Task: inverse folding
C-alpha cells in the first residue's frame, strides 16, 4: 500500500487509487481507510488541500529501514535485557572465529559418524 | 504457626534470590535438558517471590494472633508487613510498565516491518527487509512476524534458511517472549543496586536452546549449525554479550553432542553425557526439585497460617 513512496509528491486518495488499480483490484474506500490509518499512526502526513486531503509519507523507506535495523541490533546489547524481539543469533564478539569453526566441524563430524 | 515461620521464609527467600541462581547459572546440565532447566528456573523465581511475600504475611498474622505482643514484636513485624506490601506493589508496577513498553515497541516494529517488508520465495512465511546486515528475528505476540534481511537470505543456503525460520517459528509458537517477560518483570522489580541479571540471561539462553532443538528436529543439526556460524560471523557493532550468555559457539557445540543429528530423529533423549547420567534422569530430577520448591513453602506457610487465622477468628 505504500504507493505514496512511488508517487513522490503529496497525493490524493484518488491518485493513489488510480496508481493501484493498474496492478490490482482495490476499492476506493479501502485506499481511503488505509491512508487514514497510516496518517493516524504517524507514518503519513495529511495535508488539507481545498476540500480533499493530500497524503505524503512522513518517513522515507530508508528511514524506516534504518529504524528496524537499529531496533534489531539494539536488543542484544545490555541496555535492554528484556528484548522486544527475539533474534536468531546475537553478537559473536564473545567467541572468536576459530571457536565457531571448530564447533561447526564437530557437528559435521558427528553427523557423518551417525550416517 | 510458630514465631520462627517468618524467619525461615525470609532465609529461604534470600537463598533463592542469591546462591541458588548463582549455582544454577554455573551448572552445565541445563545444556542437555533446557526445558527442565527452564522449569526449574521458573520454580526458583516463583518460590522466591512466594517466600518473600509469605514472610511478611506470616509476620503480620503472628502479631495479630499473639496474646500480648511486645512493642518490638509489633515494630519488627510491622516492618515485615510493609516490606511485603512494597514488594507486591513493585512487582505489579514492573509488570505493568514492562508489558506496556514491550507491546508498544512490538506494535511499532510490526507496523514498520509491514510497510517496508516484502515476501520472498526463498523464505516462505517471512518478511524480507533490505538492511545491510544479515539478521533474522521474530516479533513475538499474537500477531507475530518473522523477519529476515536480504543479505541473510543471500548468505544462507535453502536448508540453512529453513533452519533459521524453524528456529524463529519455534520462538513464536512456544511464546518464549512470555517466559522472558516474566523474568524481566522480576528483574525490573528489584532495586537497581541489588538486582542481578543472572536469571534473565540464563532464561534467554535456555529459550534459544529450545528453539535450536525445534529447528534441529525439523531441518537437521548441520544446516542449523552452518546457519549459526554464518550469521554469528557477521561483524556486529559494539555491545559485548555478558559472560554468562550462551554464545553462538556454545550453541553449535551443543548440536554436535546431541543425538539425532540426521534431522528426522525424535526429540533428544536417552543420550548419555559426560557425567554418565541419562538425560531423562537429569530432567526428572530437575522437575522434582522444581515441584518441591513451589510446593514446600506454600504448604509450610499456608497450612499453619490458615489454622492460626481460623483459630484467631473463630474462637
Result:
Amino acid at each position: 500500500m505504500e504507493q505514496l513512496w512511488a508517487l513522490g509528491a503529496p497525493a490524493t486518495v484518488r491518485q493513489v487509487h488510480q496508481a493501484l488499480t493498474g496492478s490490482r483490484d482495490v476499492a476506493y474506500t479501502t485506499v481511503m481507510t488505509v491512508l487514514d490509518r497510516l496518517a493516524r499512526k504517524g507514518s503519513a502526513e495529511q495535508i488539507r488541500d481545498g476540500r480533499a486531503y493530500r497524503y505524503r509519507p512522513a518517513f522515507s523507506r530508508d528511514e524506516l529501514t534504518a529504524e528496524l535495523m537499529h531496533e534489531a541490533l539494539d536488543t542484544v546489547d545490555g541496555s535492554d535485557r528484556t528484548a522486544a524481539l527475539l533474534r536468531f543469533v546475537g553478537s559473536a564478539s564473545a567467541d572468536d572465529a576459530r571457536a565457531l569453526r571448530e564447533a561447526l566441524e564437530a557437528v559435521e563430524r558427528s553427523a557423518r559418524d551417525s550416517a | 504457626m510458630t514465631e520462627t515461620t517468618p524467619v525461615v521464609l525470609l532465609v529461604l527467600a534470600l537463598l533463592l534470590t542469591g546462591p541458588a541462581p548463582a549455582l544454577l547459572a554455573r551448572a552445565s546440565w541445563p545444556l542437555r535438558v533446557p526445558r527442565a532447566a527452564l522449569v526449574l528456573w521458573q520454580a526458583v523465581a516463583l518460590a522466591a517471590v512466594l517466600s518473600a511475600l509469605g514472610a511478611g504475611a506470616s509476620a503480620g498474622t503472628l502479631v495479630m494472633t499473639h496474646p500480648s505482643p511486645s512493642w518490638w514484636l509489633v515494630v519488627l513485624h510491622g516492618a515485615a508487613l510493609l516490606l511485603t506490601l512494597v514488594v507486591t506493589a513493585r512487582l505489579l508496577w514492573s509488570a505493568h510498565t514492562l508489558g506496556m513498553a514491550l507491546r508498544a515497541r512490538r506494535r511499532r516494529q510490526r507496523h514498520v516491518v509491514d510497510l517496508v517488508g516484502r515476501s520472498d520465495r526463498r523464505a516462505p512465511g517471512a518478511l524480507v527487509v533490505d538492511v545491510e546486515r544479515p539478521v533474522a528475528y521474530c516479533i513475538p505476540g499474537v500477531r507475530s512476524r518473522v523477519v529476515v534481511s536480504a543479505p541473510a537470505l543471500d548468505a544462507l543456503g535453502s536448508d540453512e534458511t529453513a533452519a533459521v525460520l524453524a528456529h524463529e517459528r519455534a520462538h513464536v509458537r512456544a511464546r518464549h517472549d512470555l517466559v522472558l517477560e516474566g523474568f524481566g518483570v522480576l528483574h525490573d522489580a528489584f532495586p537497581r543496586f541489588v538486582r542481578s541479571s543472572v536469571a534473565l540471561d540464563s532464561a534467554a539462553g535456555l529459550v534459544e536452546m529450545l528453539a535450536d532443538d525445534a529447528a534441529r528436529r525439523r531441518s537437521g543439526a548441520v544446516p542449523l549449525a552452518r546457519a549459526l556460524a554464518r550469521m554469528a560471523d557477521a561483524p556486529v557493532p559494539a555491545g559485548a554479550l555478558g559472560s554468562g550468555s550462551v554464545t553462538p559457539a556454545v550453541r553449535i557445540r551443543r548440536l554436535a553432542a546431541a543425538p539425532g543429528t540426521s534431522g528426522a530423529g525424535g526429540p533428544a533423549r536417552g543420550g548419555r553425557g559426560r557425567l554418565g547420567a541419562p538425560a531423562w534422569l537429569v530432567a526428572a530430577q530437575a522437575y522434582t526439585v522444581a515441584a518441591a520448591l513451589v510446593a514446600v513453602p506454600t504448604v509450610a506457610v499456608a497450612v499453619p497460617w490458615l489454622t492460626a487465622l481460623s483459630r484467631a477468628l473463630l474462637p
Observations:
- The two ends of chain A are 49 Å apart (CA to CA).
- Strands of chain A lie at 11-12, 44-49, 52-57, 86-87.
- Helices of chain A lie at 3-7, 13-21, 28-40, 61-74, 97-114.
- Chain A touches chain B through 47 residues (CB under 8 Å).
